[in-house]
Amino acid sequence: MGSGNYINKLVQGVRGEIPTPGEEKKAESTYSENFGSEERNSEVDELLERIRDYKVNGENRRLIRMDSKIEDVFKHVNYLFGIKVTSLVNYVCWDFLENNPELVNEIKKSLNQLKL
């Protein structure tokens, strides 16, 4: 019968894909390898380095809710650039307050008006 030859060829194809002991199958390139081969802007590299170097001082923890898009970005930033989510969130908050001093001044005014 012809079906026996078909099964033999099918099995041979599967066996050819399975590496034998001592033989390592070369992994195909991953997303991070492809991404790393592209040349990044030096400003981006400097920003990533500042975020990595940002020291989080404090023991307080705050539960925050994030949408799925932001969570996905955080996972990729951690995987691709080795930046922890805590460092990234703290850096972004610090940068926002540094670049918006009017908000900090308004908070100070409100605290001065607070009567205990």
Topology readout:
Layout: H1 2-17, H2 31-37, H3 42-53, H4 68-81, H5 85-99, H6 101-113
From the spread of the alpha carbons, the general shape counts as elongated
**Main β sheet profile:** none
Low-confidence stretches: 24-34
On the 0-100 scale, what is the average pLDDT? 77
Order of helices and strands: HHHHHH
Strand content: under 5%
How many domains?
1
User: Helix amount, in percent?
Assistant: 55-70%
Total E-strand runs: 0
Helix vs. strand class: mainly alpha
Question: What are its keywords?
Answer:
116 residues; mainly alpha; 6 helices; 66% helix
Written description of the protein model:
The protein is mainly α and 116 residues long. It has one domain (26-113). Helix content is 66%, strand content 0%. It is built from six helices and no strands. The protein is elongated, with a radius of gyration of 26 Å.
Give a short summary of the structure.
With 116 residues, this protein is an all-alpha fold. The protein has six helices and no strands.
